[in-house]
Amino acid sequence: MDYSDKEQFYLAVDCVIFGFDNDHLKLLLYKRDFEPQKGMWSLMGGFLSSGETLDEAAYRVLARITGLRNIFLEQLSAFSKIERDPAARVISVAYYALINIHDYDDDLLKQYGAQWFSINELPDLIFDHDDIVLKAMQRLKRKAKTQPIGFELLPENFTITQLRNLYEAIYQRTFDPANFRRKIMSMKLLDRLPIKDKNSSRKGAYLYSFNQEKYENFSAPGFSFDISYA
């Protein structure tokens, strides 16, 4: 088939990068340094190269900005409004990523003018990036009900309070501390460590780790990790 008479478009990837700092769910943004809309805040992104898949392009963007490679990444949706980018016809395939906010390369963020923003205090974003972020938040909430993906945002060892704060940030609501603890411990997926975090009180709080092996052995199709009603 001859494609010479067909219109050509640009294909890009945009990455919604979530992080968590023990209190707030955050989004990594950078100030756009070229036109159109130079100087405005944007998601991390880039164009697809001829020798890579969409997933590879998304991982490349993430590695370039954060210095991280082994992270949770999932394709979100395609965004194809005709005039979404005033410079050209650009179709974007969006991804969302979950990273431990303390693992990123701070020097790389400074190099690209990147900054973390609370999900509830985002600046105005370019193009349709607000729509992309909204869809990513909706996906994150749905995914958190079926899989324990929240642990991707936490350090390896964490307190129950840190875990509760995370899920309050994801679901944008508060949980009763006792009910949350009872619900999460009933799943028997956490290992209590013989050490305490004493940063928040003299008595301290036990640290826990997520047992991936238990989860893989225990979980079955239809397993629910929904703690939104705790």
Spatial gap, N to C terminus = 58 Å
Number of helices: 6
Main sheet makeup: 7 strands, mixed
Give the strand content.
25-35%
Report the helical percentage: 25-40%
CATH architecture of the largest domain: Alpha-Beta Complex
CATH H-level homologous superfamily name of the largest domain: Nucleoside Triphosphate Pyrophosphohydrolase
CA radius of gyration is 20 Å
What does this 3D model show about the protein?
- The chain is an alpha+beta fold and 230 residues long.
- It has 2 domains: 10-146, Nucleoside Triphosphate Pyrophosphohydrolase (Alpha-Beta Complex), CATH 3.90.79.10; 154-218, Winged helix-like DNA-binding domain superfamily/Winged helix DNA-binding domain (Arc Repressor Mutant, subunit A).
- 29% of the residues lie in helices and 26% in strands.
- The protein has 6 helices and 9 strands; from the N terminus they run ββββαββαβαααββα.
- It has helices at residues 54-66, 106-111, 129-146, 160-171, 177-186, 212-218, and strands at 10-20, 25-31, 41-42, 44-47, 72-79, 90-98, 114-118, 190-197, 205-210.
- The strands form 2 sheets. Strands 1, 2, 3, 4, 5, 6 and 7 form a 7-stranded mixed sheet that branches. A two-stranded antiparallel ribbon has the order 8-9.
- Strand 8 (190-197) and strand 9 (205-210) form a beta hairpin.
- It is elongated and about 70 Å long.
- The model has no long low-confidence stretch (mean pLDDT 91).
Please outline what is shown here:
Helices cover 29% and strands 26% of the residues.
Layout of helices and strands:
Blueprint: E1 10-20, E2 25-31, E3 41-42, E4 44-47, H1 54-66, E5 72-79, E6 90-98, H2 106-111, E7 114-118, H3 129-146, H4 160-171, H5 177-186, E8 190-197, E9 205-210, H6 212-218
Parallel strand pairs: 1-6
Antiparallel strand pairs: 1-2, 1-4, 2-3, 2-7, 5-6, 8-9
